[in-house]
Amino acid sequence: MAELEKQEFNPFQKLFEQQKSFFNSNKSKSIDFRLEQLKKLKKVIEAHRQDFYNAIFNDFGKSQFETDVSELSMVIHELNLALKKTKKWSKRKKVSTGFSNFPAKSYIIPEPLGNTLIIGPWNYPIQLAIIPVIAAISAGNTVILKTSELPANTSAVIAKMINENFPAEYLHVVEGAIPETEQLLQLKFDKIFFTGSTPVGKIVYQAAAKNLTPVTLELGGKSPTFVFADCKLKTTVQRLVWAKFLNAGQTCVAPDYILVEDKIKDRFIEALKIEVDKYHPDSDEIRDNFLQIINHRNFDRLCSLIDEKKVCFGGKTNREKRYISPTLLTDVSFEDKIMEDEIFGPILPILSFSNLNETISKVKSMPKPLALYAYTKNRKTVKKLLTEISFGGGAINDSVMQLTNSNLPFGGVGFSGLGSYHGKAGFDTFSHFKSILDKPFWIEPGLKYPPYSNLKLKIIKQLVE
Ligand code: NAD
Q1: pTM, whole model, 2 decimals?
Q2: Is the pLDDT of residue 462 over 60?
């Protein structure tokens, strides 16, 4: 009995009830209110800029430059966009009405889903938590944000920044790990937005299903990167190396593995080595431009993936500093251990191919990836890859940069995710689209009412079909 009572007590119930009452007061729906909150969020983020630099450095050893480029600038960009567009996005949209409903009008009203839960991951702990919050506010919802427990310093700054500046009944940060997330998942939210791994995504989906709560799942996966012989090699390696080793490879859309055409394999690997070396990674110190692995568990996992016989560059590790130098592995096959799961670290396996159709079939036999990249000048090859392989999103002759365009909805497909966000797509993700047929009283043709007749049916068919 005591056990049962213990299970039933939920420490977040009260907060949730308060957010429910607040949403029911309709305050969060007003466009002026939404814009005020977005402006306030922008102001408090600017006021905490230095705290974020310090926290991210303490959690990852990451430089201010990278924190600006990969975290804060993206957040400010989304905030500016939402401030500019929220009014437009929230407008009802008129659509045409068939003659059978004359003289009605038809329109679609975006309405907030209500009380939302956002669960963040650790790898870009600011932007992956705050950008969904911006979308939720812009769409008129209340939010409970559960930050990731791993970057503890950054999580503390986000919690302090939000909880000291916003009423808990509207927007509140809960810090915590698995138990807290499980408790939150028991509540009957109107929307759950989750970013994290595929296995935890399944747990979230199951919990949401009990309440038929709509979910967005931003998950991971092994993102393939095709390099063809006709690419411009220098630019290819430049873009690829930056994208792979950014955040020490701990990026959900990082190129996970390379598929290079046989005939340029050796030249490509040589060019890669020269490019990686420019980052001066092989130093005993953690450099400004190369950061730490988040924790020892991930450090050990990554080290176990390095097959020393296949290392052609890097492979240097330091457990105390949680440092793994950018590592290139050659002669890798699809059967190797490193090809089983998403790598999520600074190790780049290189596989070569000569038969494109066979390689495409192999990629298609694996779970649908979050991203795919192809480096080639041949538009037919591009078309073939885009048509034949299903994946979340990607880039041609670039990697990762697709994220910086808010006009491109960002999300996965299949095991790499469900739904999308960024820009207008984020607003839509946190909205329900209410369809309305709006009819005046002044005329009512009697066609659909009894007594039925063949003539009436003939007219109805002409109007409807
Ligand atoms: P994770 O799934 O371990 O954790 C994500 C969140 O879920 C955290 O807040 C954590 O506290 C919580 N959590 C963890 N285990 C849980 C459990 N058993 N029950 C309930 N909640 C739980 O993911 P992570 O390690 O933080 O992030 C890495 C993964 O996220 C990678 O797979 C990466 O590809 C993916 N990712 C995807 C995106 C994207 O936008 N698609 C972005 C970043 C990371």
Answers
A1: 0.95
A2: yes
